[in-house]
Design the sequence.
């Protein structure tokens, strides 16, 4: 029984160790893409506010 328990404990640990690594790699790329989208959106918002303030100042 002890041998079987050890195998059962070791196999799930190996099974759990490999998939999370694969899962972490995919979200990493997704997170980087989301960060790029957020950065682009922030830049667009800042540029828009600056342009609006300049137009308002010129008027």
Sequence:
């Amino acid at each position: 029984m002890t041998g079987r328990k050890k195998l059962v404990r070791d196999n799930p640990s190996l099974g759990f160790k490999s998939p999370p690594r694969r899962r972490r790699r995919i979200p990493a790329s997704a997170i980087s893409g989301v960060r790029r989208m957020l950065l682009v959106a922030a830049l667009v918002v800042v540029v828009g506010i600056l342009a609006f303030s300049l137009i308002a100042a010129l008027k």
Helices lie at 2-58. Residues 1-59 form one domain. The CA atoms of residues 2 and 8 lie 10 Å apart. The chain has one domain: 1-59.
